[in-house]
Every structure is written in C-alpha cells, then in structure tokens.
Amino acid sequence: MPKLSVIVPFHNVQQYAPDALRSLRGNARSDFEFVLVDDASRDDTPVIVERAAGELARVARVRHIRRDRNGGIASARNTGLDAARGEYLAFLDGDDWFAPGYLPRLVAAAEESGCDFLRTDHVRVTGRARTVHRVPVGLRDEVLDPREAILPADRTTAVDYPQAWAGVYHRRLLERGLLHFPEGLRTAEDRPWIWRLHREAESFAVVGLLGVFYRKGVASSLTRIGDERQLDFVRAFDRVVAETSADRDAARLLPKAVRTYCAVIAHHLGDQDKFEPAVAARLRATCAAALRRLPRDVLDGVLESMDPRRAARLRRLRRAPLRVGKEAA
Length: 329
Fold this sequence. Notes:
Layout: E1 4-10, H1 17-25, E2 32-38, H2 45-56, E3 61-66, H3 73-83, E4 88-91, E5 97-98, H4 102-113, E6 117-120, E7 122-126, E8 129-133, E9 167-170, H5 171-175, H6 190-200, E10 204-207, E11 212-215, H7 232-245, H8 250-270, H9 277-293, H10 296-305, H11 308-319
Parallel strand pairs: 1-2, 1-4, 2-3, 6-10, 7-11
Antiparallel strand pairs: 4-9, 5-11, 6-9, 7-8
C-alpha cells in the first residue's frame, strides 16, 4: 500500500498543468502515488499529462486515467478516489501547485496526530499577488471534534473552509464513504462534502503547514464564468440542509447551515451582473424558491441575526412572486 495517494484532476489547463506536475515531482517519494485524471480535455492537456506521467513514474507510483466524457471536478475526483490505494489521500487541482517538500511534511504531521484528517492553510495566487488564507479554527496542532467545529452559527467556522486540497485524509474515511463527492454538481461540490466530513468523522486537527498554492481567477474557472452551471450551489446547499435536518443534532446545527446558505445566496445576488440577463433572472427565481423551502422558524431567526442590508434583500426576495416553470425549479 502506498503511504499517500494524491488525486489530481485536469481539464483544459494546458497553460497551468506543467506547474502542477512539476510540483508533484518536487514532492515525490517511492511510497507516494499520484493519480492523474484527465477529464476529457480538448486542448493539449492530455499530451502534457502523459509525458509528465512517464517522468514521474521514475520517482513515484503513477496512475494515469483518461475519461472519455467530461463529468466535472466532482466526478473526476471520484474516479481518482476509486483508483487510489494510499493509506492517506490528498487532492490537488490541475491549475494549482504544491511547494517543494510539502507532502512529506503533511504525511508526517498526519501520522503524528493519528486523527481522521488534517486541515492546512493555503496561499491564494491572483496574478502576481500572494495572500495567505487561514483555516478558521483557532486551535492548532491539537486533535479536535469535527462536529463541534461546525459551530458557532454566527461565525466563520471550519465548514466555511471547504477546499478539499487544503489537507490530508486517512483511508478509513474513504472506507466509510465520507470522501466521495456528490455526482452531478458542477460547482459547490465541496460544500456537502465538508459538512458530511465534519458531521461524521471522529477527529481532525489543523496544522501550520503552508504549501498549497491556489490559483484564483483562472479564465476557465466556473467562479469566473457567468453561466447556469454556477446555479448548482442551490442544489449543493439544499443537500446540506436536508442532511443536516436529519442529523441527531439538527436543532444545534441547522441554524448554521441555513445561515451559510443565506450568505451564499446574498453573495451571488450581489454578483449577478456577471450573468447573462436570462441566467440572472433564473438565479433570482431559483434563490427565491430556495428561501421558501427553508424551515421558516430557522430562517426567521437567521435573518434577525444577519446584517440589516443582506437580511432586507433576502426578505424581499422571499416575498417576490414565484414564477412558474423551470426558472423556479
């Protein structure tokens, strides 16, 4: 069994894939496995990955998988998880990279802690700018209860830091069915994932390793593309709310789920100018329908505790006439 499997999906990232692949070589060990998943790229990405896979195979174990049809980041990661054999598992996106020597230090920290998963800070890269983004958990290098780290409801907490690549996960989580991502979500796939992980895992820790570089603002990223795929965040958070409602601690956890959902809705409404008019209209109708689906007593309490401007916008949206048809579906 490899000590670590790193799952790296690629899709049309020919400009950035060399950086990601070079960073894997700078972290290679003979007991590490790199699972490279090309998600039906249409540019030169497959050629770049295939060539690098041959070079990586000299210093680490490599699995190179090419998907015939593009399924999105969640499906590509799941394909990698199904193929991975490591005791520990980690993720990297094909347009990001690791600092040299980061993965060996991450595995050493995981083995020392003995917990189910570790979370790490990361560096956000926007053009030439570099900013450090911290895990919103105060205690470092201590084993903690993941469920308790969901709260408090009115603050930014561990579930608001959903990036799968900012950490490492023990294989026992995979065997318990906690590491696969919801199929069919084209964005926000990591939101139900991080909530399930924190509800059902038994232990985690935050460590002060800084070695993941996340490239923000890539032209092909869905966060930059104003099309209907971004509306999948509604289905993602519907799932979060439904699963949290069925949890044994629903009374404690549901206000946090609803508050986060409302904050994300408000964010997208404030950013709707990037959408085409028809998609923006569907965004408003879809969000209005989502607000009506939320438990009214919990939603009322959340809106009372939010800042007045955002709360007023959400109340107006909830009262707006409901359009019949696919826009409100």
